[in-house]
Amino acid sequence: MLRSFVATFGLAVGAACLTAAHAQSPAPSPEQVKAPSFKVVKIQPNDGLNVRSGPSTRYGVIGVFHHDTRGIAFTGACQGMWCPVQHETLKGWAFRGYLDKDETVAVAAKPVTTAAIPPEAAVAKPAEPDVKKAEPAAPKSLPEAAFRYFVSQGWSEHQAAGIVGNLQAECGPALNCSIHSGGIAQWRAERVTRFRNVFGYPFAKASFKDQLAYIQWELTHPNSPWKDSGRILKRAGDAASAAALFDIHYERSSGEARGARIANARTILRRFGGKAAS
To answer: Does a structural domain hold residue 153?
Structure first.
């Protein structure tokens, strides 16, 4: 009987020790439990992913993740394609389509909760991409500025190159000829007078941008006597034909320098266009 008591007592003490040891084992800390981290993907080097104050583009931008940002943590449950995120001190909402798991980095797990949404806007729009595009660098020359201007007005790159190539033939490669010599398009007579009617001040005060705008007006405005030249230019399918059509119908030169105008246009397209020169 004594032997039975000792055995029973020993088992009880052992069980109690195991229970106490288990109870004293510390729970894993957040630093010991790692959760998947995320990185920015599908973003060009000069662009960024907007971080907003809520799950929609209706909310304001509070920061930007760069194209190479890694170690981004999700801090709560996503709403559609918008997820609450945190990276260092920046905390907000980002579009899920531009985030992917980063296998090389793990972050401390955070409790998954339903993140609070600021009350300033209601979520009514469907999820949509939210990328901040980099602003293009400022033009480094007047020919580049002219090319960009005409592209921004709806002309194709080869049509814009055809225009600028002709202006170089009229004014010189740098487009820096004097306004008193007729400006970049070498305007004369009634075309100089018409400038004042359109802009409200003398041609002698025209800036470089004014001259570009005047060419655009002549090519496209319903009241312009030269609007047909713009309509014909729209037919051009490459830089060579654009330069030739602009020369024939807008500049109306003798044609002796047409080859140079075409060569200029091809050079402009090759230097400043996003496509191969034609």
So the answer is: yes
Residue 24 clears pLDDT 50, i.e. is over it: yes
Q: Which domain holds residue 55?
A: 34-132
How large a percentage of the chain has pLDDT more than 70? 74
Q: Which of 132, 163, 190 is the last residue of a domain?
A: 132
Q: Is 171 within the bounds of a domain?
A: yes
Token pair recorded at residue 197: 């009617």
Looking at residue 194, its pLDDT comes to: 93
Residue 22 included in any domain: no
In sequence order, the 6+-apart residues with CB closer than 8 A to the CB of 59 are: 52, 53, 93, 118, 120, 121
Task: Report in angstroms the alpha-carbon separations of 54 from 48, 122, 144, 262.
Answer: 17, 9, 40, 53
Angle between helices 142-152 and 157-171 in degrees, nearest 10: 140
CATH code for the domain in which residue 230 is found: 1.10.530.10
C-beta separation of 169 from 246 below 8 A: no
C-alpha closest to that of 74 among 100, 53, 43: 100
Give every CB contact of residue 64 below 8 A, 6+ residues apart in sequence: 48, 49, 50, 51, 132
Tell me: the pLDDT tens digits for 66-87? 878 898 999 999 998 889 999 8
User: What's the rounded mean pLDDT across residues 165-174?
Assistant: 96
CATH number at residue 105: 2.30.30.40
Under the banding of pLDDT at 50, 70 and 90, the label for residue 123 is very low
Q: Is residue 235 situated within a structural domain? A: yes
